[in-house]
Design brief:
Blueprint: H1 5-14, H2 25-33, H3 44-52
Helix pairs in contact: 1-2
C-alpha cells in the first residue's frame, strides 16, 4: 500500500516550487498516521557487494 507517511514526506520535500495534493482529508490524515515501514527489496546490498569484487 502506498498510503504511507514516508511517501507523503518525500513528495513534500522534493517539491521545488509548488506541491498540489489531490485527495480528501481522510486519506491525507490516514497517510500522516500511517508510519508503517515495509522492508524494501531493492537488491542494493547485492549490487554493492558485486560491484566491489
Amino acid at each position: 500500500m502506498l498510503l504511507t507517511r514516508n511517501l507523503l514526506y518525500t513528495a513534500l520535500t522534493r517539491a521545488k516550487k509548488l506541491l498540489i495534493i489531490i485527495g480528501n482529508d481522510k486519506t491525507i490524515s490516514y497517510m500522516i498516521q500511517n508510519a508503517d515501514n515495509k522492508k524494501r527489496n531493492t537488491g542494493l546490498e547485492y549490487k554493492l557487494k558485486n560491484f566491489i569484487t
